[in-house]
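Support request, priority: normal
Reporter: lab tech (M.K.)
Component: structure prediction queue

Hi team, I submitted a job for Stage II sporulation protein M from Halorubrum rutilum yesterday, and the status page still shows it as pending. I've pasted the exact input below so you can check whether something in the sequence is tripping the parser. The sequence length should be 502 residues. Please let me know if I need to resubmit or if it's stuck on your end.
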Amino acid sequence: MDLSSAVTAAASTLRRRPADLIPFYLLGTAVPVIARIGLFTALAGVYLHLELTGRLAAARESLARLDLTPPDTQDPEALQAWGESLAPALEPLASPTALALVLAGTLATAAIAVLTYAAVSAGQMSAVVARLRSARGLTAGIAGVRDRWLTFLGIYVAELLCWLGVLLLGGIAVGAAFAVDPFLGAAAALVALLVGFVALLLVRAVFAFAPAAVVVDDAGAVGAVEGAGGFVRSNPADAAAYLVVAVGVLVAISSAASALAFLGGGAIVALVSAVAAAPALDLLKTVLYGDYRGAVDPHDPPEASLRAQLSGGVRRGWREMTAFVRGSPGLHVLAVAVGVGFGALGWLAVDPFVGALTTSIEGRLVGHVPPVAALNFFGNNWTVAIATSLAGVALVVPALSSIAFNGLALGATAALEENLAALAAFVVPHGILEIPALFVSGALGVRLGIVSWRTLRGRRSRAEFADALETAFWVLVGVGVLIAVAAFIEGFVSPYYWRPFL
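Reply from support: The job had stalled in the queue. We restarted it manually and it finished. Here are the results:
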């Protein structure tokens, strides 16, 4: 199959029943939310340790006797002197136990992130191959997470070792040459650079197709690497073409992110790359490898236009969201209770610093550009909602922790605000849409966590879990509509209407 046909087949498959594939790529955005549970747990342990040992109370008393207001100057010496004056008061917080807990939490977060990424990748590629075989993608993806996560982890470790091996061998060769003669070392460095570049390019080519080989061939890590290597040897043009397309997409995304950064569109670019570019590239390489193996049957293009699909999807998303809200009041009460409860906790936690440290909504609105801000608000808030919801598949806790974290941050910010009336006036117009949308995402995360737990225990089938993921996709489309309207209000209305009155 030539590259043009493969691109058409990948696009057609992505457009047909996107809700049967994209949820696994949305799940990829939730990996950081799931992983940070390790650090959050460690920080909770630190807080309990400091509270029970009296260290936190001692720090509070010491800080209460100090002037916490930073000097109104950019003089480095004055800032350094101010920081040094705070050090004795903060010293009780740096206990060996607290430092050990933070280190353990950081390591746990890194380990959870790696393992979760491998599991999600296994699900994504399993769903891709199933869609290319006209089977249900989400069901296959759920099975792939359980059956193939270790294989995907092995592939990623093997590629890392190959990269390190190439770099190490090149470094040893260049070092040995320089030890003999500087001119020989310079020549060896040039050769090592060229040979190393080609070697790393071949490594990337092989391991780019190895994930597809795992699922298409139902192979282990070694067999997948062998299969991918055979494909690269037999079809060098297709492999090279895929790498060119992948690099082109990466460059385009990076360029768009850089160009839109000053317009506030960075979050939108990141989200589009996660839910459109990533599945499209996975489909493309799987079509190429699957055609080589004669193991896929790509879809024909859908009859409906892209515009009709988008408008129909938005309408369905709104219906699914309203139905979910009506059908799960208990879950929404739980999400609201967690958010409000941790908001109150954040308010109380910063009470010792009220007056000494301040935040200012009017200060944050200096230089506000409405279209830039609206785009940024939409991208950030929808990304948070998606990650919160899909993180719930890790047995509920990450979804609730995300709601709790945001509540804590908002409560602390409000407590430190120097003009609370202005902050309330700013938040209310868009908050009546944005805050409920985030609570809906939290409730959706709890529901996914419950279904995940029941599936794990054998009380729900994989098909039912897949149904829940597909429904979640459409609910998040509806949430996106709410957040889009809220972002418009927050960008164009909230910063201005109250100024004549306050």
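Residues 3-40+98-293 form one domain. The chain has three domains: 3-40+98-293, 54-94, 304-492. Let us know if anything else looks off. Ticket resolved.
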